[in-house]
């Protein structure tokens, strides 16, 4: 899904929700996943002017989960360790987005190359 | 729809959020509420978010701003009906709703507003009394 404006946020969240419902994820885990996804899609809009998201169902043994990938061609992040700290923000904001999203999901991966862009991947297992 | 209706009930303003809000709607609500508190001199603002399935840092900030702005204008803001899953998620995200009170439902929220405000008025009365007796 292409994300280029603020109005894309709610439909994107609904798409994530549809996937989570499809695998029977609990309301609590759905809420955590969608909230994390919302933070990441907002970062993509705010700092990279948009990007592309992919949502898919995963299986590992008997466990199902949802993977969401956020890919942008924005300015990238110079110091990922610093960006992942609670309270760090270059946007005069609270700096909860990245560290908070990480806490809410089962697996979190961030890769960024300054000048080329940022890719964040999250996985929430159904029972994770 | 680009505005959420605000109901006036005596000294209070009531808002029921019925859908997941687009950012524009949320920021409009913030400024509409602030204007309305200012214009009407309302003493309390009650926001029912029981239909919200998600509160992310953006929405959290809007609710916090409404609380802070209300305080500045001598009003109290209470958020009611937050889904348990939303409350748990907010804590894990690391967001505190500073500046707003929270209550289980509309009824409890109204009670809370009444308490806060009558307490205020009692202390005001006392202050007047002391001034008069000087
Ligand atoms: N996709 C991105 N591209 C470039 N920089 C980013 C991206 N996502 C995050 N950042 C950088 O990482 C910092 C931390 O992000 P985080 O989401 O934790 O906080 P924030 O967005 O500044 O504040 P909040 O999310 O609380 O509103 C941002 O301030 C920004 O500098
Ligand atoms: Mg952010």
TrEMBL record, chain B:
InterPro entries (alphabetical): Bact_StressResp_Reg (IPR051932), STAS_dom (IPR002645), STAS_dom_sf (IPR036513)
Any stretches that span the bilayer, and where are they?
none
Organism superkingdom: Bacteria
In the UniProt record, the signal sequence range is none
List, for all copies, the residue spans of the domain called STAS. 1-113
Task: State the CDD domains in the record.
Answer: STAS_RsbR_RsbS_like (cd07041)
Query: Which PROSITE patterns does UniProt cross-reference here?
Result: STAS
The name of this protein is: RsbT antagonist protein RsbS
